[in-house]
């Protein structure tokens, strides 16, 4: 195959192992890979530059239509100057820019979609931002090639969105698990001492309604009232932070639920925890679940969401949480783990083996072939 000139177009400056793994592998295959973001340079740029990638940033201090017009014009100019063959456009924000710019480019635009939003479940209704829905509709209509990381996203789009599903293909994420930091044993022990309890839970997800932190907090409250010795780390940030803190204060949960924000040393918190709780209604291919498994830890994740069902076998290497009547099921799962800590340890070890076999770069020949097929 002729080597291609690829632009990786992205709205974030945060490092993620799956993205870095893919870009490094594309470069190793002989392709030229350039990185452009719509935000300022950050850790992602600096790391990729340190290993030989060219990175660029086009942060604009304006909003609205003018912002999108300027970003579209910049992308067009950039691709022409750099003679880009393929644009790998990632996440909704830049995907919208890309599908408009494609009409003025010879470059082939490939849209990478990393989300699917359940508008409602039988338990609850959660309002979705109308602008986000509009953006998805425009992208679905105009995009020629869309890549999603899991059958959960593919099936969700097929059932709930107006789209020609023939232009959507599933390509799982790639992971070089050797790139993850090893937990600091002394720091892990410090965290266990600082947060003593029988069962330590952890949530690692953006603080938005669709991640359902409020539901988990309600379960923790009831279990505390029943005398269970449980604490939970809550990592990451988001628009629901203030509401969640109010809930914690209202029900005197400050000694049970700890809002820790975004952590660069998240591996230490995962290693100190016993069970990841992830009852989300929106996930594409959640990395936190795989990272938790990498450290031999158990997970409880949503059934029929994202790619969880592709590797989690209920009560064997993890727990699958139904998205209906979730509070009751989640309470039962946490109590089961609380009373069976050895079971949690055993499930974590099994899941680690399954994750490495399915997603690690060393075992992913078929996944790599799918990425190469995009460049034909």
List keywords for this structure.
six-stranded parallel sheet; alpha/beta; 376 residues; 44% helix; Rossmann fold; seven-stranded parallel sheet
> What is the CATH superfamily label of the largest domain?
Glycogen Phosphorylase B
Q: Count the domains.
A: 2
Could you list the spans in which at least 5 consecutive residues all have pLDDT below 50? none
Number of helices: 15
Strand content: 15-25%
Can you tell me about this structure?
With 376 residues, the chain is of the alpha/beta class. It has 2 domains: 5-176 and 360-374, Rossmann fold (3-Layer(aba) Sandwich); 179-359, 3-Layer(aba) Sandwich (Rossmann fold). The chain contains 15 helices and 13 strands. Strands 3-2-1-4-5-6-7 form a 7-stranded parallel β-sheet. Strands 10-9-8-11-12-13 form a 6-stranded parallel β-sheet, sandwiched between helices. Strand 12 (298-302), helix 12 (308-311) and strand 13 form a beta-alpha-beta unit.
In short:
The protein has 376 residues and is α/β, with parallel strands linked by helices. It has 15 helices and 13 strands.
Task: Furnish the topology, listing elements before pairings.
Blueprint: E1 5-10, H1 17-28, E2 32-37, H2 43-50, E3 54-57, H3 64-82, E4 86-90, H4 92-101, E5 108-112, H5 130-142, E6 146-148, H6 151-160, E7 168-170, H7 185-194, E8 199-204, H8 213-225, E9 230-235, H9 241-250, E10 257-261, H10 266-272, E11 275-278, H11 287-294, E12 298-302, H12 308-311, E13 319-321, H13 326-339, H14 341-359, H15 365-374
Parallel strand pairs: 1-2, 1-4, 2-3, 4-5, 5-6, 6-7, 8-9, 8-11, 9-10, 11-12, 12-13
Helix pairs in contact: 3-4, 4-5, 7-10, 8-13, 11-14
């Amino acid at each position: 195959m002729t080597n291609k000139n690829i632009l990786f177009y992205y709205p974030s400056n945060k490092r993620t192992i799956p993205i870095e793994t893919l870009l490094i592998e594309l470069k190793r295959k002989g392709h030229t890979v350039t990185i452009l973001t719509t935000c300022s340079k950050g850790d992602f740029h600096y790391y990729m530059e340190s290993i030989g990638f060219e990175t660029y940033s086009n942060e604009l201090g304006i909003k609205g239509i003018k912002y999108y017009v300027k970003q579209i014009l910049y992308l067009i100019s950039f691709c022409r100057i750099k003679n880009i063959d393929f644009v790998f456009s990632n996440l909704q924000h830049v995907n919208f820019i890309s599908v408009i710019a494609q009409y003025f480019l010879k470059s082939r635009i490939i849209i990478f979609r990393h989300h699917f939003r359940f508008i409602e479940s039988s338990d609850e209704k959660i309002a979705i931002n109308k602008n986000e829905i509009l953006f998805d509709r425009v992208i679905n209509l105009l995009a020629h090639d869309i890549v999603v990381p899991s059958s959960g996203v593919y099936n969700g789009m097929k059932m709930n969105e107006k789209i020609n599903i023939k232009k959507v293909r599933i390509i799982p994420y790639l992971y070089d698990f050797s790139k993850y930091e090893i937990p600091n044993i002394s720091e892990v022990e410090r965290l266990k001492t600082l947060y003593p309890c029988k069962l330590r839970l952890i949530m690692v997800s953006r603080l938005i309604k669709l991640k359902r932190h409020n539901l988990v907090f309600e379960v923790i409250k009831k279990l505390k009232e029943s005398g269970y010795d449980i604490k939970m780390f809550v990592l990451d940030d988001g628009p629901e932070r203030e509401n969640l803190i109010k809930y914690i204060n209202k029900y005197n949960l400050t000694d049970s639920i700890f809002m820790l924000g975004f952590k660069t040393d998240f591996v230490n918190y995962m290693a100190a925890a016993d069970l990841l709780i992830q009852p989300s209604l929106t996930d594409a291919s959640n990395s936190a679940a795989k990272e938790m498994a990498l450290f031999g830890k158990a997970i409880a994740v949503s059934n029929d969401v994202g790619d969880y069902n592709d590797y989690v076998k209920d009560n064997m290497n993890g727990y699958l949480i139904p998205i209906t009547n979730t509070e009751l099921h989640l309470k039962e799962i946490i109590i089961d783990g609380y009373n069976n800590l050895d079971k949690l340890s055993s499930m974590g070890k099994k899941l680690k083996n399954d994750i490495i076999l399915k997603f690690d770069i060393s075992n992913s020949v078929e996944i790599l072939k799918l990425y190469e097929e995009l460049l034909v």
